[in-house]
Amino acid sequence: MDKRFFNIFPGLTEEKAIALLEAPLEELEDKSERYVAASHLVNFPSDRSINALIKTIQDTNPVLEHKIARRKAIETLGRLNVTSALPTIRGCLGDADCYTVENAVWAISEIGTEDQEILAEIAQLLSKPGQSYRLIIQVLAKFDYKPAITKIQEFTESDDEPIASAAIATICRLTGDYSQMTKVVEFLQHSSVNARRGCIQDLIDAKYYQSIPNIAKCPVSMVFRLRAIRLLAETGIPTGEINFAEIEPFLDSVIRDRPNDLELVHEYDQTPALEFVIKELYSTDFGRCYLAGKTLLEVYPEIAGAALMATFAESAHNDYGAHYHVVKLLGWLKYVDAYDLLVEALHNTAPQFQKSRGAAALALANLGDERAIPLLRESISKTRIFDLKYACLLALKQLGNSQVAELFVDDSDLLIQAKAKNLSIS
Fold first, then answer.
1. How far is CA 146 from CA 90, 140, 150, 170, 206, in A?
2. Measured distance between the N- and C-terminal CA atoms of the chain, rounded to whole angstroms
3. 23, 128, 235, 290: which could join 259 in a potential S-S bond, CB 3.0 to 4.6 Å?
4. Cα–Cα distance between 331 and 398 in angstroms, integer?
């Protein structure tokens, strides 16, 4: 369980959080404090905290501020894997609030159960209108609940692509017949970014290793693609179903993240103006960002560098998506005036700009400036961030300084270890 972002209220003690949960809403200066308290107690897995969270769930006060705190209390108990809370959480499966039901299903999946009656109750939710069907289907798959096959089958033709994707993948998993998984792979090229992101998770859950080349080319954020390849590698390599040599080119491709290596799903019907293309770098659909980047490189290579520096100064420095794309593009454009900006990005430790650090490492290599070598060597030696470490290995190799790879042939991460071994002998 990744706990990096749990303790976001460092001044809030366990005692104070419990007091906020137990205080009447009308006595709270800020009624949202109850939600904050329910969230923060994930840091205190004591009996007192667990009891306070359970009491919060048992209080069915319909006031919105309490309702959202109740949902959060369910989630927190799920994160803490509190088995004793299962009866209380199970009672929420029949709640009128669909989000409370959603959190209850999720929490049960986190805590785990072999109670067939509970699983049957979860399956019955597929017949109830307005529920989070995708999550319910995923949870039933996780529990390998075959009695739900008929109900899940009804969702394979859903107009909601992420639901259909989950249903198809789950039917394949529960029946052992994976012949329909190609339909899930096809969603990687859907115009909807939610469909593309959702099916990646379904391919992970189904351990569909042959989809790795397709995942690598899917136009979504590299974070989704990289996570998928790493998780599939972690399950497939130890069992011998795949090996590092088979995934290495796709891992390299995702880390480098060049638009030309992707199968883009969007296109322009006419050549867009530079101003429009720059704005597209801020899109929440990375498929549009990649199309914009490709256009800048192919249509505006002579003037794109200055335009990117300008948008960075104006907005991209504070927008983690655009920040990432600008950093990459400046490297591919070999825009030497961006050297200091790229060095700053390499050293930016703010969590939201994490993926820009690997992009900066590769951008510096693309500039070909050997001043970056000691900076890259320092970065790789100090970081635990997978994509930054991997990007530094690629960047140093590109700059003719791959000796550092020898230091990572025994790295704790098997993929870094394998990459380092390959580089050290090449």
1. 20, 8, 9, 10, 15
2. 36
3. 290
4. 13
Strands, E, within 215-322: which ranges?
none
Q: What pLDDT, on a 0 to 100 scale, did the predictor assign at position 10? A: 52
Counting other chains too, the contacts that 370-378 makes at CB distance below 8 Å and 24 or more residues apart are 370/399, 371/339, 372/343, 372/399, 373/399, 373/401, 375/343, 375/346, 375/347, 376/346, 376/401, 377/401, 377/404
Distance between CA 5 and CA 131 in Å, rounded?
A: 28
DSSP class per residue in 157-204: T-SSHHHHHHHHHHHHHHHS--TTHHHHHHGGG-S-HHHHHHHHHHHH
Q: What is the pLDDT of residues 44-65, one digit of tens each?
A: 999 999 999 999 999 999 999 9
- Inter-residue contact 282 to 319 (CB < 8 Å): yes
pTM score, whole prediction = 0.91
Q: What is the pLDDT of residue 1?
A: 41
The full 3-state SS of 6-43, as one line of letters, equals CCCCCCCCHHHHHHHHHCCHHHCCCCCHHHHHHHHHHH
Instruction: Judge contact between 107 and 140, C-beta under 8 A.
Output: no
Q: How far is CA 156 from CA 77, 206, 253, in A?
A: 32, 15, 32
The token pair at 267 is 């296109």
Residue 240 has a CB neighbour count (10 Å cut-off) of: 7
* Backbone dihedral angles phi then psi of residue 48, each to the nearest 5 degrees: -60, -45
Question: For residue 11, what pLDDT is reported?
Answer: 72
